[in-house]
Amino acid sequence: MPAALYVVHLKSGFPSVEEARRRLADQIGKARAAGAVTMKIIHGYGSTGQGGALREAVRRSLRKRQKEGTIQAFVAGEKWDLFDPVARRVLDACPELARDPDLNCYNEGITIVLL
C-alpha cells in the first residue's frame, strides 16, 4: 500500500531558488507516481536568508500549480492547524497527518500540499 504522505526536504543542500523549483516539480511527479495523497515540503523559514527565498518561491510555484490543477490545495506551515479550513480538508484526505509534529505549531519552514 502506498504511503499517503510524501515528505520532501527541499532545503537540503541549500539549493538556489531555480533549483528548488525544479526539485519541487520533480517531487510532485514522484509523489503522484508513488500514490501519495499529500506532501510535506520542508523548505526552511529564512534564518539564513536562503530559506525565506525558498519558502516564497515554493509557495508561488504552488499557487501556480493549484491554478493549473496540478495540485488541489496547500497550507502554509503557519496556518497548519486544526482550525484552518484548508488544513481540515487536507486532514480529511490524509488522517495520518493528525499525528504530524508540526500540526498546531505554526512552523513557517514547511508547507503541506494536497495532491
Which secondary structure elements does this structure contain, and how are they paired or packed?
Elements: E1 5-9, H1 17-33, E2 38-42, H2 50-68, E3 73-76, H3 85-93, E4 110-114
Parallel strand pairs: 1-2
Antiparallel strand pairs: 2-4, 3-4
Helix pairs in contact: 1-2
The structural domain count equals 1
Head-to-tail CA distance between termini: 17 Å
Task: Give the overall silhouette.
Answer: globular
CATH architecture: 2-Layer Sandwich
- The pLDDT mean sits at 90
The CATH topology is: Ribosomal Protein S8, Chain: A, domain 1
How would you characterize the largest beta sheet? 4 strands, mixed
CATH class equals Alpha Beta
> Into which percent range does the helicity of residues fall?
25-40%
User: Helical region count?
Assistant: 3
Strand content: 15-25%
- What is the N-to-C order of secondary-structure elements (H for helix, E for strand)? EHEHEHE
Decide which structural class fits the backbone.
alpha+beta
Would you identify the regions where 5 or more consecutive residues have pLDDT less than 50? none
Number of strands: 4
Which strands sit side by side, in order, in the main sheet?
A: 1-2-4-3
Radius of gyration: 13 Å
Describe it.
The protein contains three helices and four strands. It has 115 residues and is α+β, with helices and mostly antiparallel strands. It has one domain (5-114): Ribosomal Protein S8, Chain: A, domain 1, CATH 3.30.1370.110. The protein has a four-stranded mixed sheet with strand order 1-2-4-3, with helices on both faces.
